[in-house]
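Render this sequence as a predicted structure.
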Amino acid sequence: MAEAKTDRFTDIVFSWSLKDIFNENIYKNQVEKIPESFHSVQHYFGSYLYPLLEETRAQVHSSMETIYRAPFAEVVGFEECEPYGKNLYDIKVDFWRNRFSDRGKEPYKTLPGDLFVLADAKPETVSDLQRVGRSWAFVSVTDVSENKNEDDSTSRYFKVKASKECEFNDSTHRSLFLVFLENLVPNRRIWKGLHMSSDLKIMSRNLKIIKEVLCTDSVAQKNNFLCSETNDDIRDKWLVESLSSGLNESQTGAVLACLEMLHCDSKSTVQLIWGPPGTGKTKTTATLLFTLLRMNCRTVICAPTNVAITEVASRVLKMERLKVGSHIEDIYLNYRRQICFYCITASILHFYVLYPYSQELHFGT
């Protein structure tokens, strides 16, 4: 069900013509002002569907306008793959080029969710795609295969889904080119989240916390109020001093409101840090995480993109001072699994050593 929803998002992007992409009013009648309150969870999710599509259209539009600057490669292998009839293809490219990238910098690396223009000539402008006799299509990467025999790290072998059946005329012996436009993964994740209400299994796990964020749950709202009323003693002098540097009163209040929830007796608590662009949400979040670090509170940070995680982590760790630099990828979950496993295992073994003869100590797998 979830995969079908994300495929639906890609299909909508594929359905856009060049005229649609350059039409700023295509969703004019569907995009409405986001209300300050919502009738239901479904109303909340539905309010963001068309704004997300419009944002995606604008991103693709921007990429198409500067297509001459985009990374590109010549296709040297192209064939349909199973399941046949689904517009799925195996592609191999020679190497990636980027005329405008810094020397010594990797020009491009293929990633799942990347959106390309596949054309029988390298387009320098959008009008090149509209010439008589020109063939082109949108394609999106579904899987990337690393070739272990490669000397470089760029992926040249991958699978794509095309917006239509690709019938390029082999008799002309024209070359095929791929031109990178945008990565759709972040917006696909948001699209999937906005359709959460149609997946009963996912919805049942998340409905409570969603209602709490939207304050549609009066009990949760009351509990949060009681917690904030009974936990004013957290405003210790050392904590206020540590938060006041670089934060205004509103930002400091947001951090303290989050910290107060640590001592709340409710089973789950949610605080929303919100504000227009440029109001310091990232700085506020980084300060909150740094304070939790000082309190020896283990924290899991989630974000829709690695870029967002890197930005927050860089501020918390003060990258220049702590020399994190090129090793910033160590913060990602894929690099932390072994460390987390070691920490958890070590804690269990330590507990077992302290209580080796306990008859009520049980370990499950």
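Summary. Residues 1-216 form one domain. The chain has two domains: 1-216, 217-354.
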